[in-house]
Amino acid sequence: MSGHAGYGSYVDDRRSFLRVAFWFVMFVTLTFMFAYAWRLYVGPYNDFYLQRLEEHEQASIYLRTEVCENSDTRSKLEGHNLCGQSKRTLARSPQVAAFYDLMDWLSFCRDGICRVFGINIGEWMLTSWKLIGTICALLYIASAFGFVTSQYGRASVAYSLPIMISPEQQQQQHAAFMAQHAAANKNLSMKS
């Protein structure tokens, strides 16, 4: 008996070690994931934000110039003034504009990268996802149909007439039933 006590503590020590090791690995993994996400998202977002903040300040300064405030000067420039573009720049905050820039930067098909050798990879990917979705839907329908037919099969077996069994099998089944019945009666008589 004394040998088993040591084994139990060994198992408990091993389990606690594995638990600590698991949480350590989780902590390290989450730390690296956080650092990678910080590098991937926050760094470029800050760059985009500083760029958009500068554009925002330039647009507000440009709108206060004589070009945008004087209608005669604005009409002389016709389509070459930047007042409308400056108003659109000020309509969106630098934070939101930086967020849109980050999402555009993270997209798979940025800078025309999806068009390689005349093949539009983005369109191909969209088509392939539609194809994969259709295949998954068909597999789901097929599995549901298989489940329903298996339920019909079970019901037909449950409600069908018994098949003919040999007299030896009948005797074995009868003996097994009688043994179970005798055991149940014995248990009942012990309880009372």
Class of secondary structure makeup:
mainly alpha
Number of domains: 2
Order of helices and strands: HHHHHEEHH
* Order of the strands making up the biggest sheet: 1-2
Count of individual beta strands: 2
What proportion of the residues form beta strands (DSSP E)?
Answer: under 5%
Estimate the global geometry from the Cα principal axes. Answer: elongated
How far is it from the N-terminal to the C-terminal residue, by CA? 38 Å
Radius of gyration, in Å, reads: 38 Å
Low-confidence residue ranges: none
Main sheet makeup? 2 strands, antiparallel
Overall mean confidence score, pLDDT: 77
**In which range does the helix fraction lie?**
over 70%
Count of alpha/pi helices: 7
Write a structural description.
This protein has about 190 residues and is an all-alpha fold. The chain has two domains: about 110 residues; about 40 residues. About 80% of the residues lie in helices and about 0% in strands. It has seven helices and two strands. The protein has a two-stranded antiparallel ribbon. A hairpin with a 2-residue loop joins strand 1 and strand 2. The longest helix is centred in the first third of the chain and has 62 residues. The protein is elongated, with a radius of gyration of 38 Å. About 5% of the residues are buried. The mean pLDDT is about 75.
